[in-house]
# Entry
Amino acid sequence: MDIRVLLILIAEAALAFLLLKKGRYIKTTAETVISVLLIVAAFSIRAALLNYETTDYQWFLTKWVDYYRSRGGFSALKDSVGNYNIPYLYFLALFSYSSVKDLYLIKLLSIFFDVILACACAKAVCCCGCSRRRGLVCFFAVLFMPTLIINGAMWGQCDSIYVSFAILGLAIGMENGMQETKTMRSVLSMICIAVSFGFKLQAVFIMPAYVILWSWKKYNWAVFSVFPLTYFLLILPAVILGKPFYDAIMLYADQANTVGTAMNYNSPSMTAFMRGVENTQSLSTLCIILAFAAMLLILGAGVLFRARITSRSMIGLTLLMTILIPFFLPHMHDRYFFAADCLTIVFACTPSTGNDSIYKPVSAILMQFGSLICYLAYLRSYYLSIGSLYLTNDKGAFAVILCAVITAYFTIQYLCLQSEAKRKKLP
# Structure
């Protein structure tokens, strides 16, 4: 391995430790030693996967970097290259100037945001009134999450980028308990979700939660104007370099026209049960209606019970969105439940009041199972099996359903069944 790659990886590991220290998650000598050992283990696993090349990298990512390299780097941003949004293409153009193999740079970028994502999840847990140790547990549970390790260090995907910004924005928005946040914090939260959307369209699975934050009096309407302004600033450098403004603005709309006709792309979603079903146009419309209805139902619950919302129930409502919206939508891919993978761990680490201390971790395991079997099916080109039972994506979809049921049950319980006195004690 290139020594420069190793040095960057060590720097990212050091960053993880420094963020834990700065966030005051680590205080005792024992916690310091255990944290260092766990960070070394987490980054050793990632280092072992850096040489792995997927077809996504060979057919697309490296060719896009080569395109920028052969056409002047940033000056080629005016061209239509790849199917990622512009902010991620800035990084690919930057990588074209380096003599380090682009495979490593692409993965190191994702690993950097693995750390940011773990910190964002820990912050979200602490916003629920949890102890720093729960935040520390959440940090390492996310950092060792199988789908996180595979997504970035093995697959070279960038889902940790958009999810880290989305969860960080959610955590910032929830701060100060039931008090209104200061304007600067509200603006920063909105900037985070706008940046998340700027990197990936799948941020729309989380974005409706910000309407609930508004109903919870965390924002006023004026703060929402920050979203389009931030997005405009994200694409502005490419426009200055010559990319047509209309093309930059409409990139996601163009992507929507290239989703393909298959109802399911190895996803643990509802359409996994619909193999061989014809008339996909009308069925796709029905799936979209169901996803929209699920989103409205969750939003309605959040707005209706806004006086009883706590940080814990806010996490539950957001998690339900990240499960149910992609579950009902057609044409979903294996990685589209990545936000739900992370939020199930956050939800599991929030305060417990009874049997939820058992079932919330179970829901996180179910979500990992549902996503992981689809990841491995892509990477290995076949489904895993236990004896004669093949772990196909419909088995994953069933696990996702169970996860959604558990999440919905406890979220409703937090919203409706808590006494007023108990609600005041719990964040």
Q: What stands out?
A: The mean pLDDT is 91. The first helix runs from residue 3 to 22. The longest strand covers residues 264-265. The two ends are 47 Å apart (CA to CA).
